[in-house]
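Design request, tokens follow.
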């Protein structure tokens, strides 16, 4: 195996590869179409209220998105994830992010999507972009139905790093020679694993940290389907813009 074929390109999805939060959009989709079970629907508005006021952490919200699937059949949820992706998420993929994915695929790199959003919706993003593998937060499925039991660790902070390390071990990747793209300070543990770290659309404080560490900073803000002079239509998912993970 040639050296370049042992190189990974790891892409965070939310607010970097995608203009928006994949888990939030999918959760809104399930909520608005009344696909969630009643208990999950009842607790969601309160959770968003508590998160906005600092009573819940980003990790709590990552877990909440996957626990919102409780009681839903896995086969039916896959179909809903497909519909949500085609209707709301596909058009939000950034042009620059898509080009980066294609460059790595052409270079023979192992392209990996890694996000705290639910596995079922991250699978749709990865499939569309021809990624070799996708990592998302997973809940245990029993008798074909989602449960509240999350498979640990969450794909978040050190947990995301552990999942990526596991893929690297199984596939035979050299993370030290690899690439990571993410907007989130939560991915610092993963940035520290690779030679090529690119911070996408960082907020002010993280931008300063990225400069201090010598990491590349990139701006990915144009949607790949956008046309010149076209204004994106308002979407209910924009109401969830404060939920970032």
């Amino acid at each position: 195996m040639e050296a370049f074929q042992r190189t990974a390109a790891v892409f965070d999805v939310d607010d970097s590869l995608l203009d928006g939060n994949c888990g939030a959009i999918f959760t809104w989709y399930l909520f608005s179409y009344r696909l969630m079970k009643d208990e999950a629907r009842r607790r969601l508005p309160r959770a968003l209220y508590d998160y906005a006021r600092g009573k819940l952490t980003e990790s709590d919200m990552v877990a909440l998105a996957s626990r919102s699937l409780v009681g839903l059949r896995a086969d039916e949820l896959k179909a809903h994830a497909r519909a949500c992706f085609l209707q709301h998420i596909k058009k939000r993929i950034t042009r620059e992010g898509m080009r980066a994915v294609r460059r790595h695929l052409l270079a023979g790199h192992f392209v990996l999507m890694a996000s705290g959003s639910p596995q079922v919706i991250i699978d749709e993003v990865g499939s569309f972009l021809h990624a070799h593998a996708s990592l998302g937060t997973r809940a245990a499925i029993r008798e074909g139905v989602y449960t509240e039991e999350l498979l640990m660790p969450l794909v978040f902070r050190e947990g995301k790093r552990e999942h990526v390390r596991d893929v690297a071990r199984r596939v035979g990747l050299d993370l030290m020679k690899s690439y990571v793209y993410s907007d989130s300070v939560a991915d610092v543990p993963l940035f520290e694993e690779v030679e090529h770290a690119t911070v996408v659309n960082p907020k002010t404080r993280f931008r300063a940290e990225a400069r201090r560490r010598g990491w590349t900073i990139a701006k990915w803000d144009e949607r790949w389907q956008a046309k010149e002079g076209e204004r994106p239509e308002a979407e209910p998912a924009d109401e969830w813009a404060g939920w970032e993970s």
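Comment from the thread starter after seeing the answer: thanks! The first helix runs from residue 13 to 17.
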